[in-house]
Design a protein that fits this description.
InterPro entries: DXP_reductoisomerase, DXP_reductoisomerase_C, DXP_reductoisomerase_N, DXPR_C, DXPR_C_sf, NAD(P)-bd_dom_sf. Its EC number is 1.1.1.267. Belongs to the DXR family. Catalyzes the NADPH-dependent rearrangement and reduction of 1-deoxy-D-xylulose-5-phosphate (DXP) to 2-C-methyl-D-erythritol 4-phosphate (MEP). It holds the Pfam family DXPR_C. The chain is built from 17 helices and 12 strands. With about 375 residues, it is α/β, with parallel strands linked by helices. It has 3 domains: about 140 residues, Rossmann fold; about 150 residues, no CATH class; about 70 residues, RNA polymerase sigma factor, region 2, helix turn helix motif (Rna Polymerase Sigma Factor, Chain: A). A 7-stranded parallel β-sheet has the order 4-3-2-1-5-6-7, sandwiched between helices. Strands 11-10-8-9-12 form a 5-stranded mixed β-sheet, with helices on one face. Strand 5, helix 5 and strand 6 form a beta-alpha-beta unit. Helix 10 crosses helix 15, helix 14 runs parallel beside helix 16 and helix 15 runs antiparallel to helix 16. The longest helix is centred in the C-terminal third of the chain and has 19 residues. It is globular, with a radius of gyration of 20 Å. The chain starts with a strand and ends with a helix. Bound molecules: NADPH dihydro-nicotinamide-adenine-dinucleotide phosphate and magnesium ion. Magnesium ion binds next to helix 7. Magnesium ion (MG) binds next to helix 7.
């Protein structure tokens, strides 16, 4: 029986993780759960799964929650996320919070030698060098939840790193894949949230539409698999059937295919190295799909992807700035304060205004993250 600590339990990945846990009561039990402020969504989950530890975003939410339930161990904020990640009984930490807020808890969980199933890509983008260094030091493996990285992980399957020619990451293209740059000028929040293939949280759905999600995934892949940016390739693949591939020096390509359903990579990360039945997900029917399409990725059409490659290659503090500016700009877009195309402008501005710091430590990353967010808000006024 694996005891799970689930950070981001009320989110899109969180809820699907709970569906997997619910399917296999013999294998998994929810020891800790963390969420933000959404008490309404959390209450039935708390009643059903009866976690020992509950974490909420702030003191005010804790007060509200305590009026609804009588629970011994309710923690708050970043400290709470750490408590939930390092508790002795916890075997696996599923990090599915949204944004760089997940970073300190990930580092502490690694130090406590927990198995880490990582959905929270912003953590790897903002501080990949720190996370991977810590993972190497403590000999902890990070199991990817992101579907592309789960695909690469499975396609690598014990092969030698020196035999990798390139990683080929597939992109569905998001909500606006058939719109021209001119048409993008007037799109609404509702249009952006309408993803053709995947049902996900609001921020990542906007990231998919801007192609920043793929950019973050390139940086995530660079850190998880220790492959240089020159050997990471992105192609458009509208069907989301091939979730990513690895090409080897001898021209063999190994791909992973599957139903576009996040429960598949979530369960794989939870059961690795074993596999379990997943009866709640449809089998992939290739005869129904019939055709798979691939297109070249256009970096002019999707400047967020270009900026992510550039920030990744520049290294140091640049990915931290890229990520923080993107998180803040997407939030402003969701609040209706800026247009869709403003997102890329704000990111470009933040990157231009930043003087790169070579090997930032945790406190430097946290302060650059805060400064970048402030400067994005400042330009708004
Ligand atoms: P959601 O926005 O749906 O969920 C985010 C979760 O994090 C919610 O439970 C939210 O709580 C919680 N949360 C947010 N801020 C805090 C905080 N400060 N303290 C504690 N909890 C917090 O996001 P997704 O599930 O879509 O994505 C989560 C992560 O997984 C992201 O990094 C995303 O990039 C990655 N990912 C997601 C995929 C998907 O299919 N959704 C696919 C691949 C990766 P509350 O509900 O109370 O606000
Ligand atoms: Mg993905």
């Amino acid at each position: 029986m694996k005891q799970v600590s689930l950070l981001g339990a009320t989110g899109s990945i969180g809820i699907q993780t709970l569906e997997v846990i619910r399917l296999h009561p013999e294998q998994f039990s929810l020891y800790a759960m963390a969420f933000g402020r959404n008490i309404e969504k959390a209450l039935p989950l708390i009643r059903e799964f009866k976690p020992t530890i509950i974490v909420v975003q702030d003191e005010a939410t804790k007060v509200k929650l305590n009026k609804e339930i009588d629970h011994q161990q309710v923690f708050c904020g970043g400290e709470g996320l750490i408590e939930a990640s390092i508790a002795d009984s916890v075997d696996v930490v599923v990090n599915a919070v949204m944004g760089s807020v997940g970073l300190p808890a990930t580092l502490k969980a690694i130090q406590a030698k927990k198995i880490i199933a990582i959905a929270n890509k912003e953590t790897l983008v903002t501080a990949g060098h720190l996370v991977m260094e810590e993972a190497r030091k403590h000999q902890v493996e990070l199991l990817p939840v992101d579907s592309e990285h789960s695909a690469i992980y499975q396609s690598l399957n014990g092969e030698k790193k020196s035999d990798i020619q390139k990683l080929i990451i597939t992109a569905s293209g998001g909500s606006f894949r058939d719109k021209s740059r001119e048409e993008l000028a007037g799109v609404s929040v509702q249009d952006a949230l309408n993803h053709p293939n995947w049902s996900m949280g609001a921020k990542i759905t906007v990231d998919s539409a801007s192609m920043m999600n793929k950019g973050l995934e390139v940086i995530e892949a660079h850190w998880l698999f220790d492959v240089p940016y020159e050997q990471i390739h992105v192609i458009l693949h509208r069907e989301s059937v091939i979730h990513s591939m690895v090409e080897y020096v001898d021209r063999n390509i190994i791909a992973q295919l599957g139903t576009p359903d996040m429960k598949v990579p979530i369960q794989y990360a939870l059961t690795y190295p074993e596999r379990l039945d997943l009866p709640i997900t449809e089998h992939l029917n290739l005869e129904d799909i019939a055709t798979l399409n691939f297109e070249r990725m256009d970096m002019e059409r999707f400047p967020c992807l270009r900026m992510a490659f550039e920030a990744g290659k520049a290294g140091g503090s640049m990915p931290t700035v890229l990520n923080a500016a993107n998180e803040e700009a997407v939030q402003l877009f969701l609040e209706g304060k800026i247009s869709f195309l403003d997102i890329e402008k704000y990111i470009e501005q933040a990157l231009e205004n930043h003087d790169r710091i070579h090997n930032p430590d945790l406190s430097t990353i946290i302060s650059i993250d805060e400064e970048t967010r402030k400067s994005v808000r400042f330009h708004l006024n």
